[in-house]
Amino acid sequence: MQMFPQAVRCLLNRHEPVRHDAKWDISGHYLSTCASCGTSIKRLRKGVWRRDEAHPH
Ligand SMILES: [Zn+2]
């Protein structure tokens, strides 16, 4: 996936968080904002962030 620029990865729902803005959610996931497209995202597992459907902007 690293061959793609982040803007393309966002279209594939592979987002990149604003690192200093991640916060722990009671549901057991880290929540943050994508540094590239600005959508609300949550961490599924280490290094894997997906759009957060439960907390849309
Ligand atoms: Zn994104």
How would you explain this protein's 3D organization?
- This protein is mainly β and 57 residues long.
- It has one helix spanning 6-11, and strands at residues 23-24, 30-33, 40-45, 48-51.
- The protein has one domain (6-49).
- 11% of the residues lie in helices and 28% in strands.
- A 4-stranded antiparallel beta sheet has the order 1-2-3-4, with no helix packed on it.
- A hairpin with a 6-residue loop joins strand 2 and strand 3 (40-45).
- Bound molecules: zinc ion (ZN).
- Zinc ion is lined by residues 10, 15, 34, 36-37, 39.
Structural features:
binds zinc ion, 1 helix, 4-stranded antiparallel sheet, single chain, mainly beta, 57 residues
SSE layout and pairings?
Elements: H1 6-11, E1 23-24, E2 30-33, E3 40-45, E4 48-51
Antiparallel strand pairs: 1-2, 2-3, 3-4
Brief description of this entry?
It is built from 1 helix and 4 strands, in the order αββββ. The protein has a 4-stranded antiparallel β-sheet, with no helix packed on it.
Helix content: 10-25%
Q: Averaging pLDDT over every residue, what do you get?
A: 89
Provide the gyration radius in Å. 11 Å
| Uncertain residue ranges | none
- Total tally of structural domains: 1
Order of helices and strands: HEEEE
Question: How does the helix and strand content classify structurally?
Answer: mainly beta
Question: Sheet bearing the most strands, described?
Answer: 4 strands, antiparallel
- The total count of helices amounts to 1
Q: First CA to last CA: what distance? A: 26 Å
Strand sequence of the main sheet, in spatial order?
1-2-3-4
The fraction of residues assigned to DSSP E strands is: 25-35%
Report the principal-axis shape. elongated
Q: Which distinct ligands sit in these coordinates?
A: zinc ion
Extended strand count:
4
